[in-house]
Amino acid sequence: ALHRVHLAVTAVSRRPLASKPHDEMRAEGFVSPAYWVDAWDRAAKSFKRASWSDNPEVLHIEFTLQRRPA
């Protein structure tokens, strides 16, 4: 069955990729920052994007899950 997910964006900012806190990496399901960096680099290589060591500026988007759309 398909379900829609409704999100409310609460904040948007730009920041260097390497400034991502380790607790955010863990909250995304990675057991260590090294696994997160490895996943980033594999995806970056696939899409020909900047690697972790390039430290690109990225968008940081915070949101909350909504039971129903506003």
In short, what is this structure?
29% of the residues lie in helices and 30% in strands. The protein has two helices and two strands, in the order E-H-H-E.
Blueprint (SSEs and pairs):
Elements: E1 6-16, H1 22-27, H2 33-46, E2 57-66
Antiparallel strand pairs: 1-2
Q: What would your notes on this structure say?
A:
With 70 residues, the protein is of the alpha+beta class. The chain has helices at residues 22-27, 33-46, and strands at 6-16, 57-66. It has a two-stranded antiparallel ribbon. The protein starts with 5 loop residues before the first strand and ends with a strand. The model has no long low-confidence stretch (mean pLDDT 92).
Strand content: 25-35%
Q: What is the quaternary state of this protein?
A: single chain
Number of strands: 2
Order of helices and strands: EHHE
- The helix/strand class is alpha+beta
The portion of residues assigned to helices is 25-40%
Mean pLDDT: 92
Radius of gyration: 15 Å
Main sheet properties: 2 strands, antiparallel
Give the count of helical stretches.
2
What order do the strands of the largest sheet run in, or round the barrel if closed?
1-2
User: Which residues form runs of ≥5 with pLDDT under 50?
Assistant: none
Terminal residue distance: 23 Å
Indicate the overall shape: globular
